[in-house]
Design a protein that fits this description.
Rossmann fold; 50% helix; MGS-like_dom; alpha/beta; binds 1,3-dihydroxyacetonephosphate; globular
Length: 124
């Protein structure tokens, strides 16, 4: 089963929830992992099963990055807020870097995330 990581900064959480609701049927077939707050919002509002890690500022991006490094994540959907400085910017950069190191698809906006899910659906 494919594992998809879902992560969204605070001003992108509504967009993430809309994306998840839009693609709920497809996402229900995958193992979902997320940072704490993003995962909580998805569980509560979309009713999907999500394994949560720490919140991003507390190390959640690094936890997900370690799973990417261990080849345990197939797709990362990370709706970043490009307009707000984040206290854990180094962790965010590290997660994006490790995705590139391991050639793991990483979508940093909802349009790319939709294209990635469509591509995966076509292959199945
Ligand atoms: O900060 C984050 C990603 O960098 C996301 O963390 P939360 O999902 O806990 O808000």
């Amino acid at each position: 089963m494919k594992t998809i990581a879902l992560i969204a900064h605070d001003r992108k959480k509504e967009e993430m929830l809309n994306f998840v609701l839009e693609n709920k049927e497809q996402l229900a077939h995958y193992e979902l992992i997320a940072t704490a707050t993003t995962g909580k919002i998805i569980k509560e509002n979309a009713g999907l099963s999500v394994t949560t890690f720490l919140s991003g500022p507390l190390g959640g991006d690094q936890q997900i990055g370690s799973r990417v490094a261990c080849q345990k994540v197939d797709i990362v959907i990370f709706l970043r807020d490009p307009l707000t400085a984040q206290p854990h910017e180094p962790d965010i950069t590290a997660l994006l870097r490790i995705c590139d190191v391991h050639n793991i698809p990483v979508a940093t906006n909802a349009s790319t995330a939709r294209l990635v899910l469509q591509a995966v659906a076509k292959k199945e």
